[in-house]
Amino acid sequence: MEFVTLNNGVKMPLAGFGVFQVPDSEACEKAVLDAIESGYRLIDTAAAYMNEEAVGTAIKKSGVPREELFITTKLWIQDTSYEGAKAAIEVSLKKLGLEYLDLYLIHQPMGDYIGAYRAMEEVYKVGGLKAIGICNFYPERLADFCETVEIMPMVNQIELHPFFQQQKALDLMKEYGVVPEAWGPFAEGKYGIFTHPVLTEIGKKYGKTAAQVALRWNVERGVVVIPKSVHKERMEQNFDIWDFALTSEDMKQIAALDTGHSEIVNHYDPNFVKMLHGMKIHN
């Protein structure tokens, strides 16, 4: 396992396990246990995934010392305000059965996220959150945010894969000392990523799959990756990316795959924003 050091000195694993779209408690618990057994120590969940309790149960059953784990969860739009964040943090801690979170993120750049971040800063200062950050903040939103808040965010989790590379966003994050984290590192299966000819040919040189090449490419850019799978064999493959390195020619070939846009989400679409606001995770 390799690590990246956040701007507050906290070490974060460069590869973790995500549980998006695994709402079934039994399946989620098993997946997290399998991931931990496979070597993962970063587990990424969110209030909106509706599986924090299952993640917490798996953490407890794993027997791995708490200090060896890096647990991330996220604040949903419904609670994105100062008071909402204060309450939501407590709810997430209770569901996960934890005394502190290693990383807490604002899930979407919507609602009163400045007010929410003020609450997060306060909890961070007393040790309830070891690191704080944001998700889905595009460059212009990230710049405004970083110029406004007291404590610079440590992480910005955004969509990053070979077909949506967001180099401009990475450059700005580097300027502000914010670590990029990739959600959807496999583009949610789009673009034929698992059999893509360019990624497959590169992988053949190293005895690796196209998926492993896609993950290694992001890691070599300093991006934390959180691939998801409910199959232990795939989990193990996704974690087996530390024994090879891509050449500059490999990186150049992958750079040519960038489409410059997402085919998964569109935060600039008012209807998408309305839809996210309409998603309620509690009464």
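The record above closes out task 2.4. Task 2.5 opens with a second protein, given below.
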Amino acid sequence: MNREYYGKLIFELSKPGRVGYSLPKNEFEGYDLLQLGTMTLRQTKPLLPECDELTVVRHYTNMSNNNFGVDTGFYPLGSCTMKYNPKLNEELAALPGFNIHPMTPAKYAQGSLKLYDEVQKTLAEIAGLSRFTLNPYAGAHGELTGLMVIRSYHMSRGDVARTKIIVPDSAHGTNPASAAVCGLQIVEVKSLADGTVDVEALKPLLGPDIAGMMMTNPNTLGLFERQIPEIARLVHECGGLMYYDGANLNPMLGVCRPGDMGFDVMHINLHKTFSTPHGGGGPGSGPVGVRKGLEQFLPNPQVRPTPTLPCREGADTIDAQEYEVYTPLSTREGQGESLYVSFFLGNFGIIIRAYAYLLSLGKENIPMAGKLSVLNANYIKESLRSHYLLPIDTVCKHEFVFDGLREEYGGDHHSPEHVTTLDVAKRLLDYGFHAPTIYFPLLFHEALMIEPTETESKDTLDAFIDVMKRIAEEAKADPQLLKSAPHDTPVRRMDDVKAVKEPKFTYKSVS
């Protein structure tokens, strides 16, 4: 590929007078556009590129080839499950019967409404909760919705003093951000040396001002929080609710349920756990589930089956179940439209894909997803511990964290030849692997967070392990090779400081 030519912006390939389209005859010629109002009319022509069709096709095809995704390579991005998305899911989501307008009357959207209800019931069973809403558009949106449920619960009882939320120091960054947006004050609880929540440090934080506690289990280090029953008991005794961040639900599938652990509210990332494509800002879906007794605080609108119709005379079976979209009376009498968190019923295309994935695995095979993700993570961890520093030496779940290279491979912080986690990540790109999450969680200075998922084969894992060991050997023999990486990517190492201080978000025409 000629990078000098195809690496240009589409505007830079533009030549006046070139076209790649043929518009139909203008049927509205002579229409008085002023009737639309002068405020709606452009005063200048839009800045649009003028290119022939072949140039456009080549430009965007080559641009897409520069993207990295699960379909093109291994994507071990810790704390963000990047599993393979079966193409069958895409075919089912594209079925014409699902491609309907969001305002379609319920009687003409029965199939879609049934699917919505089936997905929420399935998620409730997997999570051990009572009911789900599928309306939130993403994981962080689900967090905000779940926290709104907790606040609404306390407000409904007149308990206005509960304005604080407890968040572990190992939490995902969205946890305190979502809590702040919801108007809650964040109270941090420290972790023990083994990476789990310090229960003794938690006890003094509890009181009548605590709305609840947000937790991820397994936590961001990929470790199972064994003190969950005790933590849930303490929080409930002080009047708070337990919130489960479902970003790490994948290894728990079919093995244990958040509701059984004592959690009252949770969100699930459909675009992580149930294989729908994500990245680059979307698409996403963050369903929120609640335990029995909190259903009335879920956002509007909701979907439910109508009463079962009687059997028609002469028919062999009863009529099919019908579904309706409704607004619960209890919420209408409360905050009304403020309880809507999205338009219509969420990102429905993502919900379809998740349903296809759930049906493909079935209840018999869903537990295998969690077990294989745990097996793969531990296999990589044990294979690389000789080259990378393992700060917490224990069995992990779906992901684990190294703290940079071992000292003998360039991990000595006091050496001028110190090779950083960033250097390792950049060098990985030269070998065709996406880099894992780096410098997160913040508990470790040189964090390198790896999550292989269950969909990767042993061959892929072995290839990744081999490259990681090779990079460690390179760091020992020639540190500058890593410090100047990547070498074989379309774009070399960027000046991050300059990018922040002098960002360029738009193309400015020179004409």
